[in-house]
Write a structure and sequence with these properties.
Elements: E1 20-27, E2 40-41, E3 45-46, H1 51-64, E4 69-72, H2 82-94, E5 98-101, H3 114-119, E6 125-127, E7 133-136, E8 139-143, E9 145-147, E10 156-158, E11 170-174, H4 183-188, H5 200-207, E12 214-218, E13 225-229, E14 232-236, E15 246-255, E16 258-267, E17 285-291, E18 294-297
Parallel strand pairs: 1-4, 4-5, 5-6, 8-11, 11-12, 12-14
Antiparallel strand pairs: 1-15, 2-3, 7-8, 9-10, 13-14, 15-16, 16-17, 17-18
């Protein structure tokens, strides 16, 4: 999933020299829409009218930062049509990137196999399924499928991977929905909450069959938000279509029974929309270390909000 050009030169601080390192570009909630689609509003404006432009700018940024692949966490399309999903995947391929993808609730709104149908003819695109992948030695990567009976308003996780026998150092669990609910955190910040998986507990139990450290990557909430619970570190990625119009640069170091994760929110260059409600609920740069069976903060740059009102504060972004 990574190339040598996108891998850091060595392990992060605090890990032995034998550690293995990898970087992942993570993109979520593109919401590519047909021409003429009007913008919407979630917590901020959803810039559906310019979703294609934002996607292309994000892909150029991902390439500029040395990545050869991108992990796409669903809601690739806004209308759920295979045609629109394929258009987005074709733009990714056209940028020279390989895509690893999972569906979002919008992508299953019309039919549960829309992503499979769309991805079929697109080169260098893999829909993550039940069998764990190994993008780099020591890291197992699995994806989560979705089904919906109400047009994507709610979803059930399907095709859950069997990770009990994985002997890797770390599990990357990629899905559109979180495994640890963030309802309280978002509501406390004055943000809307789009709902959890209907079988949230089943999905979490499936992930926890892996006996080592677990990193859950998700979108759906249109917010950058993190939560940890024992062996699970959950990183919520912001939306491309909505402020802050960003992707996540994720670095993973593993080895000797330890793991470290560094996540940086990278805004897509361009003037796309303004912040009305701050959905960047964590530091733009974060670092976490797994030690003695649980995840611990290893530092990170503070969000730097202008004042205490989380609904309207504007973070000071790292240069």
């Amino acid at each position: 999933m990574i190339s040598s050009a996108s891998a850091p030169a060595g392990p992060g601080p605090g890990l032995p020299e034998a550690s293995r390192s990898a970087r992942f570009a993570v993109l979520s909630d593109v919401h590519l829409a047909p021409a003429g689609t009007a913008d919407g509003v979630w917590n901020n404006v959803t810039r559906r009218s310019r979703a294609g432009e934002i996607l292309q700018a994000a892909l150029a940024d991902i390439v500029r930062h040395g990545h050869s692949t991108v992990l796409v966490l669903g809601d690739i399309s806004d209308d759920g049509s295979p045609e629109m999903i394929r258009s987005a995947l074709s733009l990714i391929a056209g940028a020279g990137l390989t895509a690893w993808v999972v569906p979002g609730n919008h992508d299953t709104a019309r039919r549960s196999d829309a992503l499979d149908v769309a991805a079929g003819p697109v080169r260098a695109c893999t829909v993550l399924r039940q069998a764990p992948q190994q993008p780099v030695p020591g890291v197992a990567l699995v994806g989560v499928g979705l089904e919906s009976t109400d047009g994507g308003n709610s979803c059930t996780a399907v095709h859950l991977a069997d990770v009990a026998d994985c002997a890797d150092d770390l599990l990357l669990w990629a899905g559109h929905y979180p495994l640890l609910t963030q309802r309280a955190s978002l509501r406390a910040a004055g943000l809307r909450y789009p709902g959890d998986l209907l079988n949230l507990q089943d999905a979490r139990e499936a992930a926890e069959r892996f006996t080592g450290p677990i990193v859950v990557l998700h979108g759906h909430l249109h917010a950058a938000v993190t939560r940890r619970a024992g062996r699970i570190l959950q990183v919520g990625c912001p939306a491309a279509v909505e402020w802050p119009h960003a992707w996540t640069d994720l670095a993973v170091d593993t080895g000797a029974g330890e793991a470290r994760v560094r996540a940086r929110t990278r805004r897509v260059a361009g003037e796309w929309s303004q912040c009305v409600r701050n959905s960047q609920l964590v530091a733009a740069e974060q670092s976490w270390q797994f030690d003695r069976g649980s995840w611990h903060s290893a530092g990170g740059r503070p969000p730097g909000v202008a004042h205490d009102d989380a609904r309207t504060a504007r973070p000071a972004w790292p240069r």
